[in-house]
Amino acid sequence: MIPSGRVLVSIRRLCVLLLLSATILSLSCSAKRRAEDIDFPTEPPGLVVSSHPAASRAGLQVLRQGGNAVDAAVATGLALGVVDPFNSGIGGGGFVLVRLSDGTVFAIDGREKAPAAASRGMFVKDGSYDPALSREGPLAVGVPGILAAYEKALELAGSRSLGELVEPAVSLAENGFPLDRYGLSRYERAIEALRRDAPSARIYFRSDGSPLREGDFLEQPDLAETYRRIGKEGSDYFYRGEFARRLAAFMEAKGGLITLADMRNYRAVVREPVVGSYRDYTVFGMPPPSSGGVHVIQILNLLEVSRILEGRSGWDSHSVLWTSRFMSRAFEDRALYLGDSDFIPVPVDRLTSKAYAEEIVTGMMKRKAAPAVVSDSDGAARPEGGHTTSFIVLDRARNVVAVNQTVNLNYGAKITLSGTGVILNNEMDDFSAQPGTPNAFGLVGSEANAIEAGKRPLSSMSPTIVVKDARPVMALGGAGGPAIITAVLQVMVNALDLGMDLPQAMSHPRFHHQYLPDMLIVEQDTSLVRELEEAGKGLQMVTRDHIGVVNAIAWSEREKAYVGVSDPRARESSAWLRLREEGP
Ligand code: GLY
Cα of 66 to ligand 1 centre, how many Å? Predict the structure, then answer.
């Protein structure tokens, strides 16, 4: 039986909301496929670029009221947990990369952790890995971390309280928001699983039990109350109070592992960012347990050392094939060496060094190796736009924040914790459940990423900040599992090397190689596909609709303004937001 629904279709409310949000919709939710240049009616207080206009609006509102980029990032992230619960939320984890205008950089790790009772064989049944266990249900859930990361960011550099910053999210959860086409497409992929989970069914179906439709208002009163309590009691409510008790009781009843002690012991960690140089730029990224920072910098080093992009104004088959081999090599290293550096030594310095890049490039050139091996196998990884989210905030003082947050796969473990409205992650699938066996993203790993009690699973999330002459010139992050790394890389290269402006850099067709499965994946119906075919190297390619979803802010020398662009691959809308000021 489907209990009484929370969904109201209210034309009146829709009209009021549209009216209230007309300004922001015009800023960040253009319904057009192509990027559109929209000027602010008044000088904006800063830039917020996320995959949902209501979340961007929450962040902009905080900036408008005098909050800084860290404050606005927390408000945006909390709001995304309401409007895009299939991608992220407080039941998940993430990374917050902050660069203050004085040059200080914080890399805050709010990645989920394996519970204390977790063990390396927990997803192995009768000798083989059972993916159902690591993807759906209570065993799939890692101890959530993003809320602790927000709190840490506010403690280090915020100027507003969590209580204030939670307000836009409370209001979105309580008053509801209309489900758009993109949200609906993600929902439709999870309908059966959400129906099986009674607390999810209460939220995500109409009162007559039928599925939600585009334009339906989704109200989440339990989530509003959870946020309200967090606003009053801080993360204590979540990690030590009623939320933690409910979660522990649920886990005990359903055969999950997370205990009250796991929640109480969770801490966000401030880590040293990974730092690299690329031409005249300094690149800051997230260190392990993310592989993102290491491999974005490693592939940039390989591009720089090989000079394959020198003198080029666009991608051609030669540069695509070489870059795909560099991607493959980086993912091979990811599989061998990357894991939680609190548990295993990760050779970050070596992997991100120019000397190592020289060694790899010299070896590849000597071997004159064949181009990337490709195949059209059905088993190909699907680095689609789904899963995870990223957002970027820049304030007038040029403090910049890049956040990647996730519940892992679509709607995480497909569990809503009863009475809280919170979707629980399935981040345990990001471990190598059985070294050498691929996870949901087709990624293989080794001992380095094997499950251990208290360990963080390896991530590909790549919040990245690029600095030149001591000023931020680009900040970005992405969604799409392993494609986060390669999509972020390509947006950077398109803008920094190939002279594209940010909307072009964003919408340009992408390619992806992740070592295993050994194949080149290319966005379909592109001239790139034709060019690679014509290169006559006997290649077969796998094409995909979308490779990653990126959000970015970059300094435009031509416009003398910071420009923010959201990826049209998510909501088929791409907004230009501009912040004019004296630039670097
Ligand atoms: N769950 C996706 C990632 O962290 O890479």
Answer: 33
What is the distance between the alpha carbons of residues 55 and 29, in angstroms, rounded to a whole number?
A: 11
| Position in ligand 1 atom list of the atom nearest CA 460 | 5
Q: What CA–CA distances, in Å, run from 187 to 8, 180, 260?
A: 17, 10, 31
**Ligand 1 atom with minimal separation from the 430 CA:** 1
The tokens for 277 are: 């140089």
Taken as a whole, the chain contains a residue count of 584
377 class by beta-carbon count within 10 Å (0-12 exposed, 13-18 middle, 19+ buried): exposed
Instruction: Count, in order, helices (H) and strands (E) of the chain.
Output: 23, 24
Closest protein CA for atom 1 of ligand 1? 408
DSSP 70: H
Q: How far is CA 322 from CA 277, 292, 329, 364, 507, in A?
A: 20, 20, 11, 10, 21
Instruction: List the one residue out of 526, 483, 476, 520 whose CA is nearest residue 502.
Output: 476
Tokens of 353: 């060094």
Sign of the C-alpha dihedral, residues 251, 252, 258, 264? positive
Residue from 87, 441, 443, 449 whose mutation best tests the ligand 1 pocket (most atoms within 8 A of CB): 441
List per-residue pLDDT tens for the chain, 584 residues long. Answer: 233 333 332 322 332 233 223 222 223 333 233 333 344 445 678 999 999 999 999 999 999 999 999 999 999 999 999 999 999 999 999 999 999 999 999 999 999 999 999 999 999 988 889 999 999 999 999 999 999 999 999 999 999 999 999 999 999 999 999 999 999 999 999 999 999 999 999 999 999 999 999 999 999 999 999 999 999 999 999 999 999 999 999 999 999 999 999 999 999 999 999 999 999 999 999 999 999 999 999 999 999 999 999 999 899 888 998 999 999 999 999 999 999 999 999 999 999 999 999 999 999 988 765 454 444 444 444 443 468 999 999 999 999 999 999 999 999 999 999 999 999 999 999 999 887 788 888 888 788 999 999 999 999 999 999 999 999 999 999 999 999 999 999 999 999 999 999 999 999 999 999 988 878 899 976 777 777 777 746 556 788 888 999 999 999 998 888 999 999 898 755 455 666 654 44
Q: Which residues line ligand 1 (CB under 6 A)?
A: 388, 406, 408, 430, 459-461, 481
Three-state SS at 40: coil
DSSP string, 430-447: GSBSSTTS--TTS----G
- Tokens standing for residue 393: 């905030």
- The Cα–Cα gap between 121 and 225 comes to 37
Residue 360: both structure tokens together? 């790899």
Q: If you measure from the C-alpha of residue 427 to the centroid of ligand 1, how many angstroms do you get, rounded to a whole number? A: 7
Beta bridge partners of 64: none
Q: How far apart are CA 341 and CA 488, in angstroms?
A: 23
Residue with the nearest Cα to atom 3 of ligand 1? 459
Give the Cα-Cα-Cα angle 132, 251, 223 (nearest 5 degrees): 95
Dig out the tokens for 454 from the structure: 């208290």
Ligand 1 centroid distance, CA of 426 (Å): 10
How far does residue 387's CA lie from ligand 1's centre (Å)? 8
Question: Which atom of ligand 1 is closest in space to residue 484's alpha carbon?
Answer: 5
What amino acid occupies position 518?
D
388 is catalytic: yes
